Amino acid sequence: MPAKPSGEIKTSKVSVRQKNGDIYVYQRSTKYDPVKKYNVTLESKLLGKIPRGESELVSTRPKSSSGPKTTKAEQAEKTGTKIAAKRSCVGMMEILEHVGFESSIDSAIYGSTELGTAQKTISLARYFLATNGQSAPGITTWQLTHKMPYESGFTESVYHELFKKIGYDETFQQNFFRLRCSKIGSNSVIAYDSTTISTYSQNQKDAVYGYNKDGDGLKTIKILTLYSIDNMLPIAFSKQPGNIPDVVCIKNALNELSVLGIETAEIVTDNGYYSISNIAELLFNGFNFITLIKTNIKWVKSEIVENFDELNSIETLCPFDASIHGVTVKLMHIFTRNEYNISDNEINSEKKFKKEIYLHLYFSAQRQAEERMQFDLEMYDLKERIEKREVTIDDLDANMQKKVNKYLNIIETDSAINVSFKKEQCKEAYKYAGFFALISNKEKSTFDCLKKYRKRNKIESFFKYEKNIVDGRRPRVWDSFTLRGRLFVQFVSLCYYEYLHNKIDEIKRTLGVENGDNSHDKKVILNRELKLRSWLENTPIYLQLQWFDTIESIEISSEIKKKRWNTEVLLRDRLFLEKLGVTLPKNE
Fold this sequence. Notes:
Distance between the termini: 75 Å
Strand order of the largest sheet: 7-6-5-8-9-15-12-11-10
Largest sheet: 9 strands, mixed
Strand content: 15-25%
Shape: elongated
């Protein structure tokens, strides 16, 4: 017997071939009619068509309705079509994008790693600079209104994994440094110095108690940086435990420079890197050098004594600094270089050789007054604290104990402690206050050498920016490799900052200055430039960027049309962007 009809509505897809070969696919709802004895169609809906010779279903064009036609605006109103709108901050981001391109920082990043890592690195580096060193978690909301190369979005796990990946990828880092080095000349002057970052962390294996430049008593990690003085470019950095003395770091720096393609350069350091063995390494590797040397070294002090009267003569006055006198002594000096066995890295022999060097001696009366005052205050403070029993000699560090023994007489009785000064020793300390010395194997001129050494202060500013502008005062990550990755991103951010800072300085030197062009040397234009220069001189770079962050782009799109426009820009701001070479997105 035939099955009894269920009476339920059934839905199925039906394909109908057309004369042109297209197949129309319908969704039909049917129900069995017991009276008519067959299935009747209750509803039929066209799903789409499969064009002739193809297998994929595509949508069909809807039938045009009969009757009077309506405009797109009327259609949007009837159907309730919504407008899609987006507002984003473009002024500051256009400046940073321009800096990344013009400085070749971005191309060096893209040329050193794969696309995704490069985009994340650049985006996070721009964030650190744009926000004046806000911590990384802030990027999760900041990215909503600021366009960056990495468009998929940052979360805590994204930037943490980025730090870790970079930390383990030494190839990426060294290739970036190599490309940075390619921008400087073969005879460039390179400053080499270190700073420390403090941490409470117990997980950072490089964090140990050592010399702390912030003086906060915490464990430290040492960051060593190579900085091209001529080009004003930071070119490379390395990380070491905080207790490694500066004086033993120079050999690794020379190895790194050699690998990065710099075979000859003039290295400038402070007295923390002076030692006979370091100078020997510099000479052996073909590098010229300028280094600050301590004046209490026996052979240096003897030359100061020999030239004491000349250093107080008006004939030795510095032409660009009236507070300093200087003389130069040419010497033949004996250097010792340790030679190692490659297999076990142990000293095989010591090689001694003579080399001609220039010892530059300087005296500053202003510096003498400052050093004497500092010495007096320090000794008086020690004297009072000991007499009041606030501190004992054993409580002092080794350096302070040495000073107490050298400059103070201490007589202790049951009732009191009497402290007096050793007059002759204190007089001897006064005698050498205000002197400092540089040595070089290349610089013969007393004051040309001083001028080059002073440019080294640029690296001190760089360390200040590192701690205050890109959130570099604390590690903020758990392990050593992740820290290395974070430091690298911060280094890229500082490269951005240095380029922008130098570019703005270059612009300031031209503003309000006649250049012989009649169309430029008009009073109204020069006055406008002077106002811009005044603003640049009195506004830190971070606040300059924040000022331009108020320039927003509004994008509107709907079924009707698309539009984009920017907020208005002041005449002064437009002049700055023009001088910088930045073009904002055009209104559409």
